[in-house]
Amino acid sequence: MIDASFQLAGGLGLFLLGMALLTEGLRVMAGETLRRALVRFTGTPLKAFGSGALVTLLAQSSSATTVTVIGFVSAGLLTFPQAIGVVMGASLGTTGTGWLVALLGLKIKLGLYALPLVGLGAFLRLLTHGGRAAFGTALAGFGIIFLGIDFMQEAMAELSKVFRPADLPHDFTGHLLAMLLGIGLTLLLQSSSAAMATTLTALHTGAIHFDQAASVTVGAAIGTTVTGVLAALGGSVPAKRTALAHVIFNLATGLLALSMLPWYLRAISHAQARWGLDTGAVSLAAFHTAFILAGVVLFLPWTRPFARGIERLLKDKGPRLTRHLDKSLLHTAPVALEAVRRSLSETACELFRALRRCLDASAAPMAEAQRMEITSALRETQHFIAKIPVRPGNEKLSLARISELHALDHLLRLQPRLDAPAGVLEMLRHERLKEAAAMTGAILEKAVSGLIAGGPASHWVAEIETQSTALAALRRQERAAILRQTAGGDWTPAKSLEMLDALHWLDHASYHAWRICHYLADGENGAGPAS
Predict the structure, then answer these.
(1) Of 233, 324, 304, 347, nearest to 80 (Cα)?
(2) Which one of 238, 254, 482, 518 has the fewest beta carbons within 10 angstroms of its own beta carbon?
(3) Which contacts qualify for 334-338: CB closer than 8 Å, 24 or more apart?
(4) H/E element holding 362?
């Protein structure tokens, strides 16, 4: 009994280690590609569902997908309805592990044949670098998974002689207890895949009956949501919304499956009799996929109303301009830098709108609260970007960081324009500067619309650059004319200086707006000379 318990613990440990290595290797091999695919193919909830299922199937970890999605929502890369679709897809994709164990791990004794894979993988990890080392890690993990399953099978065969499933109740209370066991097992192992592998092995060796295994599987599906909840603790409101959506979906789907368990069991029996479905582990894997898929069919058409309900439940009360700066993103530099870019873009838009109102005589003066919001956002963004870990050797990330620092520098230089003297602000609306003011207003409006729309910046940033260059030429021309007229007595020195300061204000506003857009626009990070 003790020997079997130790062997079961060791087998579980090997399975968990193998899953961790397999996930790590796959994530390193195709992590950036998977991240891009997750963001690119999530336009609608249905596409988001497909992306979540595929990425989880490839990465072999629904928890990794969920935690990644929580980060993406915090950074603004995904909308909340898209995130819900991905989470549903992740819940379905994780059922692939059950099929792997049922079709290969339990059907064929692969433990002995997996040993060469572990050895080859270890050598590749130790002796190579980059993609080959990551492939070695995944290969070793794949082999260790089957070693762990072999140990678990042997241990379960011994334990089944002591543990009699007939002693457990078979009524609703018994199924509820089995579901709680599945939740507890997943919480203990921090992996629904490991809980599922344990359940499949127990079923295969006769340690539990099929209906009990089905209830444990439901519990494992509910328990896996805890990882997302832990990732969202202390995070932004979007992160908490995503975690809550994951909990509600899996909990509702699991409780529905438990309440309809007799009908599911009849359907499985029918499939076994009519289509020759395997009566053991394969049937349990099919049940797992079937009840998650049923939940998707029920929830997916109502994704947007579901999202609105959670948004009403968890209202966003934090700072508006820095809501993307979630400290949980700091361990993933590309996502953290994207969060900074989006925060800088939104702060820039707010600043551009405020500057545009300075040119409008009918506009109300800027509220002090809005001024403080911009100042606070710039300060908080500056502190956040300083905390993002620097990883030498990644040129793309380095260029992105440099571009954002340039944009932040231009924003900090532009922000004091809001505090220009009253005489200068009044002179901005003078008839003499009407043309220059109109050009500056057009530049600021173009900058706001460009940053909001996103996408490639080759056209609109170039237009802003052209207009800014033209305004700089107009400033030089007007400056000389104003000084000549002042010398001729047409302007008093005081008014002349205010006029020149106003002209300088317009020129600098347009120049900094151009440079900010250049560094923040999608696809332009790192381009162009430092200035």
Answers:
(1) 304
(2) 482
(3) 334/32, 334/35, 334/397, 334/400, 335/35, 335/71, 335/72, 335/75, 335/77, 336/75, 336/384, 336/388, 337/385, 337/388, 337/397, 337/400, 337/401, 337/404, 338/75, 338/76, 338/77
(4) none
The Cα 17–Cα 300 span in angstroms is 34
Read off the amino acid at residue 527: A
Per the CB < 8 A criterion, the answer to whether 418 and 495 are in contact is no
Alpha helices in 488-525 (DSSP H): 493-520
Question: How far, in Å, CA of 517 to CA of 465, rounded?
Answer: 10
Rounded CA gap, 138 and 133, in Å? 9
Locus of tokens 């209906």: 211
Query: Which residue type sits at 122?
Result: A
The set of residues, in sequence order, having a beta carbon less than 8 Å from that of 326 and lying 6+ positions away, is 71, 74, 75, 235, 236, 239, 339
Domain(s) labelled CATH 1.20.58 in the chain stretch across 327-520
**Digit-coded pLDDT (tens) for 346-394:** 999 999 999 998 888 776 667 788 889 999 999 999 999 999 887 776 7
- For the chain, what percent of residues have pLDDT higher than 90? 24
- Name the residue among 125, 122, 127 with its Cα closest to residue 143: 122
Mean confidence (pLDDT) of the chain: 82
The pLDDT of residue 34 = 57
Architecture of domain 327-520: Up-down Bundle (1.20)
Tokens of 379: 């300060």
pTM above 0.85, yes or no: no
DSSP structure class, residue 416:
G
Alpha-helical (H) ranges within 428-492 are 434-453, 460-487
